[in-house]
Protocadherin alpha-C2-like
Amino acid sequence: FVLAALWPGALSVTRYSIAEEMERGSVVANLAADLGLELGGLAQREVKLDIFTNKKYLDFNKKTGELYIVERIDREYLCPAKPTSCFLKLDFIIETPLRIFNIELGITDINDNAPHFRRDRVELDVSESATPGERFSLPNAVDPDVGINTIKTYKLSTSDHFTIEIQTGSDGTQYVDLVLTKSLDREEKAVHKLVLTAVDGGVPVRSGTANIIVRVQDTNDNPPQFDKQTYTINMAENTPIGTLVVNLNATDLDEGSNSEIVYAFTLYTSEKTQDVFTLDPNTGEITVKGTIDYEDMKFYEMHIEAKDKGAHPLLGQCKIVVHVTDMNDNFPEITVQSVKNTVPENVPVGTVIALVGISDRDTGDNGKINIFIHEAMPFILNKSSDRPTHYNLIVSEPLDREKVPEYDITLIARDTGTPPLSDNETITVHLLDVNDNAPQFPQSFYTIRVMENNAPGSLLSSLTAFDPDLHENQYLVYFIIEKEIANTSMSMLFSINPENGNLYALKTFDYEIEKEFLFHIEARDSGSPPLSSNVTVHIIIVDQNDNAPVIVSPWRAHGSVVEEKIPRSTDKGSLVAKVIALDTDSVHNSRITYQFLQVTDASLFSLDQYNGEIRTMRMFSYKDSRHLRLVVVAKDNGEPALSATVTIKLLTVETDVKAYSDMTEMPLEYDIFSDINLYLVIGLASVSFLLLITILVTIVLKCQKPKHSKTAPPSRNSVISERNSTIADSTLVSNDAYWYSLFLAETRKGKLVVRQPVPKGSRYIVSSIPRGTGLSETSDSAASTLQVGVL
């Protein structure tokens, strides 16, 4: 605590002096006593203390009259300009009556601040070539205190190369210089770390420090150095380009550009060596850039220099010797001479295709060569007798273009070196086509079904052959091998497109007249000579339901109504009549069924749908009508079905009439010159005359027709077709056993049998007409027709 002192001699200003940094509550002075004021009077008067700062450092105690500190006073803050003296001015004001006392408080300094450097780290760059005695300025330290409390001196940490010198300016400020006392060597020590200390004169003594970093700058005083003076390296010839030979690593103790090294070949390195090897100037890598050939050079010698980039560059040198190791580095070579790239496929075995030569630059085992064909082919290599390094490539087997159109013959030549080297050469041989393949049909026999009533010109089938040859040797022409069936040429019935083999029908076929045809079709190529093959074609005419059934029994002499008499005493199950119909279509379409279309009494008669028999289902009664009418329809099995009808009128009589089943049918000879037969004879004579004229014209045309080169004899099928055609025109055969046998017997005698009942009271008769006259009778009903022809 520092007591405050009243400065004597000051009449209007009261002055005190205290030390800075006094504790809060510390009494500066008893202001009331010093100013002669009574404490009792102050308690009832207004007292104010004005301080001319932005802080309230002091206050007045009215009870004790003391002036005391309420906030620490910092002299360096209050007087930053560091004057020799520092005052705090304030007014003590008393109201009623107003009295003002001027007070000055002097603040004395204490050593409360240590010296400090504005930069606590100072970096200096000093060349290693600097001479002793050179000076380097250092920054000054500052101390806010004054007097003896400010900076007194500087100190430097121990150093073999540096010291300091202190100089004092005219204003008393001390300046420090760093002085070099010994030469520097960057390679020995590149950085010197020093500590500069500033010390004040206060009590206690305070100090501040700064780090001085001295970086020694390099000078180019060290040349590059190689690890060895001579490098010996072994390399195989044909080492790949880019292969590393050696990586040179010269070192330079300098730094910066003084240590940066550039590598280069010296003048002692030959141009040929520099063509084979390349040197990277920055990394010192030596790599292969050309071909190393033992046969050209056994070893290479290179002289290398390493130079730094200093202002005055220094350099180092070395020598590299590369010994080349011999290798099997030459590939065999194949030379093809006099090659035939195109040959016909029928070239003879033993024909020479090419002359092949082989060679190798190597010697010894590396120069011995074996040559062979890569894959098994119809070719072989024969060694030439006059030139041991030449071979003849010849055909060893017959060639076939249709199997292999071309050959890629790969020849491989391999030496006996280690490792063995090889070369290959491919010879392409194209085979020219020869017409050596006949056309071939996919099938040897074609069965073609044709629906009857076909349209003329309709396509029946496409018969296409294949020929594996090329060009004109595979261009095919199709034609029908000419033959005749029943004096009719196949070319009049069928036609084939000569280009694509489409087979067409030239006429409309009728199953009832012609049922099948058998002929041959030939396919011929356009080669020279042409080759051909043929195929058998079997045409089957498929039936259509185009013929309606024809009712042949019971016989209708006039119209479509048959009148019969039957006794009323007929028993149940008795045969009344039997309807027989014939259909000239095929078996399936000619299957006939019978049924009643109309019947007077459905309970009296039954009709068997398969054989056409009409029988009684019961006996006649007095209630039954005397006149009965039955309409029977005969329907075939075709699609759509065709039919024919017959009307049977029955008259029941009381007298006994011989049963239908017991009636005897006897032949009755008509008068050959009856009215009907007269008309028939005239008609048949006209038809026969026209037929005779037609036959004569046909014979004349046949005689004028040129003979064909090839005429196939009539086959069994053609005979069958002709026979079936004849039968189709013959008289229809009834299914009735009796009439069928009678029909056969009489026709053999040259007569035609007609079944007809005799008038009432007479027996049934049969008329026969000699062969050749013909008979055809057609009723007025369109649903029932009977045709009788000549066998």
